[in-house]
Amino acid sequence: MCDYSLESIASRPARVGEKLVIRDFGTGTRGFSGSEDARVAVCLRPGTELSFTQEARTVSLWPWSKVVTRQKTAIFRQVNEDRPAIHHDALEFADGERVLLTHLAVGQEAVVLQLPAVRSGSTVAADAKEPATSA
Question: What is the model's pTM?
Fold first, then answer.
């Protein structure tokens, strides 16, 4: 899934093994794109596992906020789904920390390790929902 702020951007689903890059799409949010076309957003389903090439870095929102998560692997999650006008795309790291995708620094690279299983006979859209959580 891609965040609501990327609805006007061309998009496609992620593929196992592909390298993704954090991009600023000029819509007030950041997200993943593939290496072949920076203008196309790559959408992830909740449960997709990623590995960053280096420790993940966030944009410093405040002088006292940390910039490096000290983590390289994460699982894609949807958060705050009950609040339509805010960002929903997030990464959950092994230590339980959740970071909105739009707070990640531009230019970072990650590889798709694994996509979530899709139940036989169901649609991707139906399986893409995760229980709403607060971040």
Answer: 0.78
